[in-house]
Fold this protein.
Amino acid sequence: MIAFILRRLLGSIGVLIAVGLIAFAMFRYVGDPVNQMVGIETSVQEREQLRHQLGLDQPTIIQAARFLINAARFDFGVSYQFKQPVADLIGARMPATLELALVASILSLAAGVPMGVFTALHRDSALARLFQALSLIGISLPTFLIGILLIYLFAVVLRWLPSFGRGDVVHIGSWWTTGLLTVSGLKSLIMPSITLALFQMTLIMRLVRAEMLEVMRSDYIRFARARGLSERAIHFHHALKNTLVPVITVVGLQLGSILAFSIITETVFAWPGMGQLFLQSIQNADIPIMAAYLLLIASLFVVINLIVDLIYAAVDPRLRVQLHRAPV
């Protein structure tokens, strides 16, 4: 197991280096940051001086190497737009995005897995057909449209929930903030988290249902019934456990997708997270923020994939045997 983790860590380092180089190369062509930082009255000499201060007059290879070395120390430079360290800007916005993604993931799992199991075990019932119809709607509607519909219903018509912002937050420690401890924070979190979780929930529900139906037709389920085991033991101890093996991969990747693609939800609800900061950086050709954001998302995907592999080993005993037999 230790050798497996070490191999994955070495591979992860290579992935992060490749992502860093790709991000640096791509974002060099989104625009000239100097034009975004100065006015039209700025002279050519002042522009060249600013370009020299930012290191933009150096060869591309030197700039890329300096960026990777600094990124390894969590130093992503200074934002061209905000004139502040990028690490501080992302650190201030990270709690909002992580809180939204965490709540959305919990909602999607807490609703998707039971709904998938129910629709598989009671596929001819009216409630199961209703769940399938709702899942088809949830997986078909775009995220921004769901958010707009929720805002119109609960914020404009009923006036139950706020339509934008994060509400009041509580500071925990030196940099972490949370809205889970305030009433306005909880109200502000309801609609964005549901919007972000709906697509993931329907995807998980349909996947669990398909895998559950496949497992219920297998031979060892018939053998378990022949042994006289109760339906509850068969469904939740044998069938569901084997159903979760392929579901873990999708859930892990979807958790990364929630973090990476929360940009749309944050834009619709004016949620002060990293996604909104990333959009602002694109508009102003703020290369340090864009590159740091992409590296951060890549790092989260790498960590999530490693955790998924470890959960595989905990759920599937066959994988544990293969890992113990694998050469170092």
In short: Strands lie at 170-172, 176-178. The longest strand covers residues 170-172. The radius of gyration is 24 Å. Residues 88-283 form a domain with the MetI-like fold fold (CATH 1.10.3720.10).
